[in-house]
Amino acid sequence: MIKINDLLIPTLDDVDFSSKKILVRIDINSPVDPKTGNLLDDSRLKAYNSTIRELVEKGNSVVLISHQGRPGDNDFISLEEHAKILSKYLDTDVEFIEDVMGPYAREKIQNLEKGRVMLLDNVRFVSEELIEASPSQHAKSYLVRRLSPLFDGYVNDAFAASHRSQASLVGFPVVLKSSAGRLMEKEVSALAKIFNPDDYPKVFILGGGKVLDSVRIIENLVKKRLADRILTGGLIAELFAVAKGLDIGKDNIRVLEKLGILSLVPRARKILLMGGPIEIPVDFRVEKEGKVIEEPLNKLTGVIKDIGTTTTGIYSSFIKDAKVIVMRGPMGIIEDERFREGSKTLLVDALESSGYLIIGGGHMISMLGNVTVDSNKVHISTGGGALLLFLAGEKLPALEVLSTSGVK
Ligand SMILES: Nc1ncnc2c1ncn2[C@@H]1O[C@H](COP(=O)(O)OP(=O)(O)OP(=O)(O)O)[C@@H](O)[C@H]1O
Ligand SMILES: O=C(O)[C@H](O)COP(=O)(O)O
C-alpha cells in the first residue's frame, strides 16, 4: 500500500493480478514537433517498463490506454508512433489498435493472448473522456461500460494525468479490481521523501502554455505559503505582467486574447493581492519582422518567444540560493532552436545548484536529453500539472478513487 496522509492506495503487491486480462492507464502524452508531427521526446514512454513487464511476467495480457494532446492542438495525434517506441523499450511487440472502444477494439481485446501487450488509440478521440466528472458518473460512461466487462482488473500508472477526473482515470476503479502501478508508486514515494515543506527557500520556476493549470497551481502554492519565490516564464509570465498593469505590447495582448488567457487576469490580480511572491521577467527575447532581438518589458514591440538575458541572470541567482527547486514548463517556445536559451540556462544552473531539484512536465524533461543526474538530489517526474498540484497538497482524483474503491 502507498500511504499519503490519510489515503491508503493499493499497489500491485495488494492485488492478485496473474493470468488475467488487465487494462493499464498510462500517460504517454509527449511533446510533438509541430512541423513533422513526430514525437520530440520519449521519456514518458520509457517510464512504464517495470509495470508492464511485471504484469506480462505474471502471465497477464495487457491493454494499454492513454491520451495524447487536446482536441484542436497540433499535438492531438494518434498513438501509432507511441506503440512502435513502446515495442522498442519493452523488447516485445506492442500491437497498435486504431480504435478505442468500437467493435474492432473490443474484438481485439477479447482475442488478446496471454503475455501479449496492445495499445488502444488516443482515448481523447472519445469525446466523453474530456468531461471532468465524478468517478460514479464516469463509471456510467460508454467508455467504461463498453470496456470494463472485457477485463479482470485495472491498473492506474498515469501519475502525470492523476489531476484529471476523466473517464479512463476515475471510472474503471469503481467497477474493476484496481491498483496503482509501479511508476505511480515510485513517483509518490520519491516526492514524499524529497519534498519537505519545512525546507526553504523554495523556488518554483513555472513556464509553458497551460496557463489555467498554472494559475490553479500558483493559487495553491500561495494559499499554503509553500513558495518563497515563483519565477515565471512562458505565457504565465505574460499573464502576470498584464495583471500587474504593465504594457506588453499589442501583438502579445492579441496572443493572450486568442488563447483565452486574458480572462484569467482577475484571478492573477487576486494572487498578487494575496502577497504571492511572483517574479516576472524584466526583459524578453522576441521575434520582430523575422528577426530575433531582446527587448525590456516596458518597451516591447515584438512577439515574446523567450525570457531575456538579464532575466535569466536574475533568475539564476535565485536558483543558486535555493534549498528546493521545482521546474515545470519551458520559459519560451523551445520547439524553435532560437528560443531555447532561457530554459536551457536555468536548467543547467538548477542541475548545478546544491538544492534538491524536482523537474516535471514533458517539455523541460525533453531538454535534459541524455544528461545523467544524481538521483539523491534530482527527481525527474513524469508529471507536469499533476506533480505541482501534488506538491501543493491538492487532492488528485485518480489517486483518491484508487484509495476508496481499489481492492474489490
Ligand atoms: N511565450 C510563449 N508563447 C507561446 N507559447 C509558449 C511560450 N512559452 C512557452 N510556450 C509553449 O509552451 C509549451 C509547453 O507548455 P506546457 O504547459 O505543455 O509544458 P509541459 O511542461 O510540457 O507540461 P505538461 O507535461 O504538463 O504537458 C511549448 O509548446 C512552448 O512552445
Ligand atoms: O502532460 C500532462 O500534464 C498530462 O498528460 C495531462 O494532460 P492534459 O493537461 O492535457 O490533461
List keywords for this structure.
alpha/beta; Rossmann fold; binds 3-phosphoglyceric acid; binds adenosine-5'-triphosphate; 408 residues; single chain
Structure overview:
(2R)-3-phosphoglycerate binds at residues 44, 124, 164. Pfam families: PGK. Strands 5-6-4-3-7-8 form a six-stranded parallel sheet, sandwiched between helices. Strand 15 (324-328), helix 14 and strand 16 form a beta-alpha-beta unit. The two termini are 14 Å apart. It has helices at 43-46, 49-57, 80-90, 103-110, 135-138, 142-147, 167-175, 182-194, 211-223, 234-243, 250-258, 265-273, 309-320, 341-352, 362-368, 385-391, 397-405, and strands spanning 2-4, 7-9, 21-25, 61-65, 94-97, 117-120, 153-156, 177-180, 202-206, 229-232, 278-279, 283-288, 291-296, 303-307, 324-328, 356-360, 378-380. The model has no long low-confidence stretch (mean pLDDT 95). The chain is 37% helix and 18% strand. The chain has two domains: 2-184, Phosphoglycerate kinase, N-terminal domain (Rossmann fold, 3-Layer(aba) Sandwich); 195-391, Rossmann fold (3-Layer(aba) Sandwich). The protein is of the alpha/beta class and 408 residues long. Bound molecules: adenosine-5'-triphosphate (ATP) and 3-phosphoglyceric acid (3PG). Adenosine-5'-triphosphate binds at residues 31, 207-210, 234-235, 304-305, 328-330, 332-335, 361-364, 384-385. 3-phosphoglyceric acid is lined by residues 27, 29, 70, 160-161, 164, 210, 362, 384-385.
